[in-house]
Amino acid sequence: MGETAKIILDGKEYEVPVFTGSANEKAIDITKLRDLTGYVTLDSGYKNTGATKSAITFLDGEEGKLWYRGYPIEQIAEYGTFLEVSYLLVYGDLPTEKELRYFTDSISHHTLVHEDMKRFYEAYPTHAHPMGVLSSMIASMSTFYPESQNPNNFRDIDLTIHRLMAKMPTLAAQAFKVSIGHPIVYPRNAYSYTQNFLHMMFALPTYEYEIDPVIEDALNKLLILHADHEQNCSTSTVRMVGSSQSNLYSSISAGIAALWGPLHGGANQAVIEMLEKIKNDGGDVSKWVAKAKDKNDPFRLMGFGHRVYKNFDPRARIIKKACDDVLNKLGIHDPILDIAKQLEEVALKDEYFVERKLYPNVDFYSGIIYRAIGIPTEMFTVMFALGRLPGWIAQWKEMIEQGEPIGRPRQIYTGHDLRDYVPIAKRG
Ligand code: ACO
């Protein structure tokens, strides 16, 4: 027997195995704990729970390391294309030229969405948030492709994966066009994945839209940096929904809903709104840092802090540099970038933030780049979802291939003791 852990309960000693990951992370394997002892563990927010074994992404929060299938994020973001990285995440290795050509061609082939789906847009209110629209459009796709219902048919699953990768940018761009009252722009398969998305977002029938390579590069990098992040809230949601053998579309739709929240992917929108507020309030960053520290004030510095990174977020470093590069190359001076930098400087020196190991996360600077490349604020979290899609798919696929059981946590009941029903006339 390898390494074990001893647990003493009511004076009785139990021995349980310790599982060691490939980067030497240790986990006490409590799979048999309840059977052995009658006890369960209590871990609200799953801060200490390894919900699965996974070979996709490695993350070391203390050292600020992030690897996709063994490749460090710094190299992947520098040299990769988003589709290449998507292939890596989903299928486990970087593609050969032939594999990448097939993957790219197949995705290009599926970029159109069923014309009937356009009618759905008419039913949403004009100012519907695009995350709500995207989540329901993706859920609706399962009704158009009933062959996706069987998660164990691997041929159909591959088709579903390619359809999702192909159609999500189309649906996202369509949702945007509809929300501003512009005509929908159809995909153009001669373009790369990122070029096509920019084309669908910004082209108009009235003039030729030229794709700026600086913008395309920035988009490629942002999508790659968001592509996976192991068992975060939305990914855990995708795995949880999928664990009931629900189809991939429904699982991704649930992931989009989870990502929407301001404590998760919605933070990129919240950061820009916060920076705008600080600017309009006169730009005194120390006032807002003080508010964030005040326990009687619900305000938090959006884009700061992370459940896992307690030193620095390697994605934030890359994005901060990309942000400077993109704004310089586009010749844009955005006053909220100055505010963001001041805020970072003040917060990083402040004892409150230092003590709690609160650093800028991936979302602190991403919104400034999105803004510079013309993406409206309400679309920021949609951009995150587009980037995270291959990660969600890879995690769902791994869960199905590992034959994981349905996700069903326990609870510790803290409610009333057993009591008798009281007729309404006798209550109160
Ligand atoms: N501003 C001010 N104080 C903060 C912040 C913040 N942004 N984040 C954490 N803290 C404080 C908490 O008040 C708490 O203080 P206390 O110990 O005195 O009570 C302490 O730091 C620990 O915070 P928790 O909320 O317990 O940390 P947790 O790991 O649960 O939360 C989270 C992480 C949700 C990211 C949090 O830092 C936060 O709300 N940040 C702002 C939202 C944000 O940027 N989210 C994006 C995350 S990245 C992503 O999802 C892609």
Low-confidence stretches: none
Strand content: 5-15%
Mean pLDDT: 94
| Strands in their spatial order, largest beta sheet | 1-2-3
What is the helical fraction, as a range of percent? Answer: 40-55%
Overall shape: globular
Count of DSSP-assigned helices: 18
Major β-sheet annotation? 3 strands, antiparallel
Oligomer: single chain
What's the β-strand tally? Answer: 6
Name the structural class. mainly alpha
What is the radius of gyration?
Answer: 23 Å
What ligands are attached or bound here? Answer: acetyl coenzyme *A
**Straight-line N-to-C gap:** 61 Å
* H/E element order: EEEHEEEHHHHHHHHHHHHHHHHH
Descriptive report:
The protein is mainly alpha-helical. The protein is built from 18 helices and 6 strands. Strands 1-2-3 form a 3-stranded antiparallel β-sheet. A 3-stranded antiparallel β-sheet has the order 4-5-6. A hairpin with a 4-residue loop joins β4 and β5. α6 packs antiparallel against α11, α9 packs across α18 and α12 packs across α15. The protein starts with a strand and ends in a 27-residue tail after the last helix. Bound molecules: acetyl coenzyme *A. Acetyl coenzyme *A binds next to loops.
